[in-house]
Design goal:
This protein has a 7-stranded antiparallel beta sheet. By secondary structure, the protein is an alpha+beta fold. It is 68% helix and 11% strand. This is DUF2884 family protein.
């Protein structure tokens, strides 16, 4: 019974602020950005790019040719702009969806305080989850690829745990079944309204990450070629 109810709750769809279709590119490196440099690294490669395009690859300073240096300058500039922007866009979308569902709760359930409380709890946990993937503070940005790649699954897990809390508490007070029709209406209507926006944002995230990954792989290849000339 609970598994069937899980499918119609209004809380769970909010966790999927990306669509079900997976992006073809999954990053495999962390990124840290500060005023002095952009640092991209994993167990295999360690790349530091300075604002002027000078680089250190695996503890080895490399003097890139003018064409590659120009590409490096633009790449680190893109990262400085795109990652904080992606973080803010994600936060804005989460807040927008939360406020939409809050209004729906008010309209259909007379501002049910318990459900709003669980919705706010879900929102705060998703924000925390997002900041585990992309976080900007005092002009410094950190991107964690493992957290980013698990963002959708972890978000759904949080949504399910909160859902069971709502169902468990509501069964005790008989509120959930009394409000079941209203909850089904909110879930169906609001999720249908939000889905195109979330799908478009999912495509946007994939486009940004794919662009970053493509540039990074090209630059890494060119740097390694210049070393072995």
């Amino acid at each position: 019974m609970l598994k069937r109810l899980l499918l119609i709750t209004l809380l769970l769809p909010i966790t999927a602020f990306a669509a079900k279709k997976e992006c073809g590119v999954k990053p495999s490196y962390d990124i840290t950005i500060n005023k002095e440099s952009v640092h991209i690294f994993n167990k295999k490669d360690d790349l530091t790019i300075m604002p002027n395009g000078n680089v250190v690859l695996n503890n080895r300073s490399i003097l890139p040719n003018p064409s590659l240096q120009k590409k490096l300058v633009y790449f680190q500039q893109d990262l400085r702009q795109q990652l904080p922007q992606l973080e803010q866009q994600s936060l804005n979308l989460l807040l927008e969806v939360k406020m939409t569902f809050e209004q729906a709760i008010k309209n259909h359930l007379s501002n049910d305080s318990e459900l709003k409380s669980e919705l706010n709890k879900l929102y705060k946990r998703l924000v925390k989850l997002l900041h585990g993937s992309i976080s900007t503070e005092n002009g410094n940005t950190r991107f964690s690829y493992q957290n980013f790649n698990n963002l959708k699954k972890d978000g759904e897990d949080i949504g399910q745990r909160i859902f069971y809390n709502v169902v468990g508490g509501s069964i005790l007070h008989l509120n959930f079944f009394k409000n079941l029709g209203a909850i089904k209406t909110i879930s169906k209507n609001e999720w249908k309204a939000q889905k195109p926006k979330l799908k478009a944002f999912d495509a946007h995230i994939c486009s940004v990450i794919t662009g970053i990954d493509t540039q990074y792989e090209q630059i890494l290849t060119q740097l390694n070629q210049s070393i072995h000339k």
